[in-house]
Amino acid sequence: MSANSAPKTARPLSPHLQVYKPQITSAMSIFHRITGIALACGLPVFVAWLIFVAAGPKFYPIFTNPFNTVVGQILLFGWTFAFFYHFCCGIRHLLWDAGYGLSIKAVYTSGYLTIGLAVVGTASVWIKVYGLIP
């Protein structure tokens, strides 16, 4: 009997979520893609906003009224966070491409820094929007 005749077990062909435990690096990579998709979905809304701004004060409230609702505010908040998170992750990836911060410790540090900066950036924009700071 040859060594190749042993019964084969059903093993996954590539790594997947059932094999590896979740890590900050994998979660951030997945979330970076999700925020990119969210920003792409928000781009037509941004373009529509520019069109309504250009149309003048008569038409601008037609666009802004839906965003004064709770759902509209949640969407704007989500797009704000997606922007800051995706921006910070992009800078992190540029640093990696340049060869900086590739050690495990630096990857985790930059990951937590990215999350923190995204939260601070989002909070600062929304604090300014609601007039809590001059």
Give structural attributes.
134 residues, mainly alpha, 4 helices, 3 helical TM bundles of succinate and fumarate reductases
How does this structure look, described?
The chain is mostly helical and 134 residues long. It has one domain: Fumarate reductase/succinate dehydrogenase, transmembrane subunit (3 helical TM bundles of succinate and fumarate reductases). It is 68% helix and 0% strand. α1 packs across α3 and α3 packs antiparallel against α4. It starts with 23 loop residues before the first helix and ends in a 5-residue tail after the last helix. The model has no long low-confidence stretch (mean pLDDT 91).
Number of beta-strand segments: 0
Low-confidence stretches: none
The oligomeric status of these chains comes to single chain
* Estimated radius of gyration: 22 Å
**What's the rounded overall pLDDT mean?**
91
Question: What's the helical proportion of residues?
Answer: 55-70%
| Second rung of CATH, namely the architecture | Up-down Bundle
Ends apart, CA distance between termini = 82 Å
Content-based structural category: mainly alpha
User: Helix count, per DSSP?
Assistant: 4
Question: What letter string, H or E per element, gives the SSE order?
Answer: HHHH
Q: Mind telling me the CATH superfamily name? A: Fumarate reductase/succinate dehydrogenase, transmembrane subunit
